[in-house]
Amino acid sequence: MIGRATLGALAATGMLVAQASAEVLADIRQRGELHCGVNAGLAGFAAPDANGNWTGFDVAFCRAVAAAVLRDPSKVKFVPTDLETRFKLLMDGEVDLLVRNSTWTFSRDAALKLEFAGVNYYDGQGFMVRKELGVTSVKELGEAPICVQRGSTSAQNLADYFGANGMTLNTVEVESDAEGERRYTAGDCDAYTTDASGLAATRAAFADPENHIVLPEIISKEPLGPVVRQQDGQWGDVVRWTLFALIAAEEYGVTSKNIEELVKSSATPEIQRLLGVRDDLGAMIGLDAEWAKRAIQASGNYGEIFAANIGEQTPIGLARGLNAQWTQGGLMYAPPFR
Questions:
Q1: Can you spell out the DSSP letters for 264-277?
Q2: In the chain, is it the N or the C terminus that has fewer CB atoms within a 10 Å radius of its CB?
Q3: How far is the CA of 128 from the CAs of 106, 117, 259, 315, in angstroms?
């Protein structure tokens, strides 16, 4: 049995958490701008152009959240982050949301008190080598110098994999994607290892991508997703369900082009609830009825965002793979909107 004093303490804690959570949403509305932490520059995911305009897969999600909360996808301040600063900026409140190729792990969830709001890209760690080396497998890289980012999950995975396979590891530690690319192209290492999606983005930016290959092995699971602080319950729900709205929209065939017509004509209850035609779900998370509609309109549904930024018809050239809808053999699956 829980005593009255304990119940009182739990209630007080719950009130404080709820208050802190509500304050995040209130602060964003008051300043009229979402502060979103992103990669400092990774082609296809988050990168500014010569005029400072940010584009990419992660950028599009930030804009969808801004559209849901502030009714305007342009109301975002993009804050470049690196491996050393990304979680600190979030915990210190310098950013409201982190959308930066960050892997959901036990220690980050539990020890850092972070809340991963879902998975927006199912990834895995790969290796890129120069074609001229004639290497066809990671198993041939024993004693070869390998560039890897210091303090990343990639570094730990690399050590685990080489140890498990009785291979001699020779790492060249780098501080960032940019340094990794530079040292790899300069010949300081024979291979560069990071998330396979990051390797595809890096390779696409080379002047001679045809001279570099990504080896077939994937040595880890890297579920990447948006991150908020653990105490930000309501704000976490806003971010989580915005992601689910984009995923569900693709499943139901709701696109940025047909959404207005579906608002008027769809008789499907799930679509009606998603688009705010019936059962005002937004009120439960502090938003209005049309929050999800605006999020989808910002850059399209999940499939549209994927295709436009990193899909097979872009220089990044990524196939959907695990990031296909569950109905198409992938893992993308949104809980019901009801």
A1: HH---HHHHHHTTS
A2: N
A3: 27, 30, 41, 16
Contact 199, 126 (CB under 8 A): yes
Query: CA-CA distance, 309 to 29, in Å (whole number)?
Result: 28
Pairing of strands 54-55, 47-48: antiparallel
Report residue 226 as tokens.
């948006």
Positive or negative, the Cα torsion across 57, 229, 108, 79?
Answer: positive
pLDDT 10s digits, 225-247: 999 999 888 999 999 999 999 99
| Percent with pLDDT over 90 in the chain | 85
CA 118 to chain centre: 9
Reading the block at residue 208, the tokens are: 């001679």
Largest CA distance in the chain: 72
Q: Cα(34)–Cα(77) distance, rounded to whole angstroms?
A: 6
What is the sign, positive or negative, of the torsion defined by CA atoms of 251, 253, 256, 260?
negative
Q: How far apart are the first and last CA of the chain?
A: 34
CA of residue 49 relative to chain centroid, distance: 20
Residue with tokens 């045809």: 210
Using the structure block, give the residue that is written with the tokens 């989808």: 296
Buried b (16+ CB within 10 A) or exposed e, 298-313: bbbbbbbbbbbbbbee
At 326, is the secondary structure helix, strand, or coil? Answer: helix
CA distance 51 to 37: 19
Q: Which amino acid is at 140?
A: E
Residue with tokens 């040595």: 219
What predicted TM-score, i.e. pTM, was given to this entire model? 0.88
Reading the block at residue 218, the tokens are: 């994937």
At residue 79, the 3 state secondary structure works out as: strand
Three-state DSSP at 208 gives: coil
